[in-house]
Amino acid sequence: MRSRSGLLSLLTASAVVLSACSAAATPSPAPTAAAPTAAPTKTTDGTLPKPELATLKFGAAISEMSQFAPKVAEMEKIFDKYGVSVSVTVFNADGDAMQALLSGQVDMASVGAAGVINSWLTDNQSTQLASFKVKVVDSLMCAASIKTAADMKGKSVGVSTLGSTGHGSVLLALKALGMAQTDVVVTPVGGESARIAAMKAGSLACAPVGEVNVPVMQGLGFNVIVNLSTSNLPYPASGVSATNAFLKKNPNTALVVVAACLEAQNMMFSAPTKVGADWATFAQVKPEVANPIVIASQNQLNRTLRVPDGAFTFVQSVMAIAAPAISTVDAAKAYDGSYLQKLQDIGFFAKIGAPTN
Predict the structure, then answer these.
(1) Rounded to a whole number, what is the largest CA-CA distance in the chain?
(2) For residue 31, is pLDDT > 60?
(3) pTM of the model
(4) Domain 139-230 is classified in which CATH homologous superfamily?
(5) Which residues neighbour 349 within 8 Å (Cβ) at sequence distance 6 or greater?
(6) What's the rounded Cα separation, in Å, for the pair 239 and 251?
(7) What CA–CA distance (Å, rounded) separates 195 from 204?
(8) Residue 89 needs a FRET pair 20 to 30 A away by CA distance; which of 107, 219, 248, 282 works?
(9) CB atoms within 10 A of CB 278
(10) 3-state DSSP call for residue 334?
């Protein structure tokens, strides 16, 4: 699994690309026509419709297991089984995949909620149809003298940049603690390594820390105030997305792609050794290294691929801290759950043994 600093590097690269997309936006938001939805249900045995396209290009940034489902679907030929040959192109960052989607370099992509919401400020709106991970796995950690929410009031809490996912983690933690944003001083200090260094030096009271570094910080006397990996507070990450223009022309193809990714995601639970072998090949590590990564990732993987109500609106509220113009978007329209609902209605969830909630 990648390091926390690696994750923040990817998020920083994504933010740069998203800023560029915003800069190219029209002065006012594009018309917010309803995103196209999946075709009506016609079967209950899990049979998928014939896709409009025989081949498809899919883009994804894959550096951890929660982003791996599209590649599993390609490697295990799940896409092919349902009638479409998919070539997965791996990008260095989520923002690169988003740029490739909007430019037409790829037909569909695995991109985060923030990028999809941002596209609604442009003429090339996109929609997320499924999300591979819908929770943050950070812990909000504080200095030894801070043990409760009351102790945090007025103290500095570090994030990478304003409006980042790390900032979202802090807001989720405050929500879990019943605190207001104004109860703490949010301070941009850079990536996780910079935040940890500042906490060790005593210049920063608290910060979100990735699960890999939590035991180390606890050993140094720092306290976990909130463990977000055990909370039910949603924050959607990368998931199956496409432009609305593509969805209008190819609803069956989009449904098949979502179905294949759903099946691949659930293989991480039903066939972890097989997925471990795929990860070993992809990441060029030994199977004995890959298999534990699959198992360890299960607590953060979203088996249903569904996004809880209000999750995209929360992401939007975090983005608006640094980019107020994003507040003009109806963020709820940037996610369309009808494709997953159709898969449930036609019996596909039951067919592959996936949970529905």
Answers:
(1) 63
(2) no
(3) 0.84
(4) Periplasmic binding protein-like II (3.40.190.10)
(5) 262, 343, 355, 356
(6) 17
(7) 8
(8) 248
(9) 22
(10) helix
Distance CA 100, CA 93 (A): 11
Task: Collect all residues with Cβ–Cβ distance below 8 Å to 211 and sequence separation of at least 6.
Answer: 137, 138, 139, 229
215-260 pLDDT, tens digit per residue, is: 999 999 999 999 988 888 899 989 999 999 999 999 999 999 999 9
User: Where in the chain is CATH 3.40.190.10?
Assistant: 4-134+235-352, 139-230
57: three-class secondary structure by DSSP: strand
What is the rounded distance in angstroms from the CA atom of residue 216 to the CA atom of residue 214?
5
CA–CA–CA angle 169, 171, 174 (5° rounding): 110
For 4-134+235-352, CATH gives 3.40.190.10
Side-chain-facing half-sphere of 176: CA atoms under 13 Å: 20
Q: Whats the size of the chain, residue-wise?
A: 357
Please count the CA atoms within 13 angstroms of the CA of 352 that sit on its side-chain side: 27
Sheet holding 126-128, edge to edge: 85-91, 55-61, 108-111, 239-243, 126-128
pLDDT tens digits, residue range 281-334?
999 999 999 999 999 999 889 999 999 999 999 999 999 999 999 999 999 999
